[in-house]
Design goal:
By secondary structure, the protein is of the alpha/beta class. The protein contains eight helices and 15 strands.
Amino acid sequence: MAFPRIIVFGYHDIGVACLQELLDQRANIVAVVTHRDDPGETIWFGSVAELAAAHGIPVETPDDPNTLAFVEEARCLRPDLIFSFYYRCLLSPAILAIPSLGAINLHGSLLPKYRGRAPPHWVLVHGERTTGVTLHYMDARADHGDIVAQKAVPIAVEDTALTLSRKLTAATRALLAETYPLIVAGRAPRIPQDHSAATIFGRRTAADGLIEWSRPAWEIYNLIRAVTRPFPGAFTFWADRRIFLWSARPPGSRSSPAPAGTVLGIGGGGTLEVATGDGVLEVIGIQPDGGLETDGAAFFNTMVRTSGDSRPRFG
């Protein structure tokens, strides 16, 4: 089949990169299905809808792609192949059964590890040193089907969710470029997942950014980089005021006998040193809720020293 008819379900930067790769491969894309941007969400990523419209591809934005009406609409498009690139809805068996070449999803981890939502955030929270992307056939269960191909991505100790997402986007496009000819020729591999090795993680919310100072310094550092801008951020409290911690240094070997959360003082380079359950965390960027972001030293001089607290602590 030289020019299979394709429906692309996509969103976010990975959706944009994959759609652009298919366009570069002269794929016969008969429709793009995406999401309307949520006004309550910070939209820092590219628009699949805009890219599709610029190339004259019909764009659909159903609230639910699994209604009988939309399934029939998809069936009338007679797709031979369906791709899902960071589309946020699980597609029903009725849709998955339509294309003769199957339905293939892009997931942002090395399956079967980190199935579910927000894999770039979760791998950072857990301090992983390697992640990757996976193309896999879709079935009725999320991130469950046979694997087509994978590409590993190293995680640097300084990576944030944003820098890691950009690495994953580049890896995804490269993986699709390599595998697309095999997929349209019907010769793509089908490698069963080891379901016994699967790990599953759910959606993260802004409340998950609350820092528990009793945890080790490395765990707190990993949380900060996992949820820093453009995401809601890691936070703690100073008296009754919420304080955001936007960046920190990778922890060293220094420890402190002070109770977890104790503000120890100003460190090298203007950081704010805080005792944790294991080790000392050096905070770089810090911001009181409703205020301006400053460095650790400025925060110490303006808020800690003026508080009159002889044992200042976050908590």
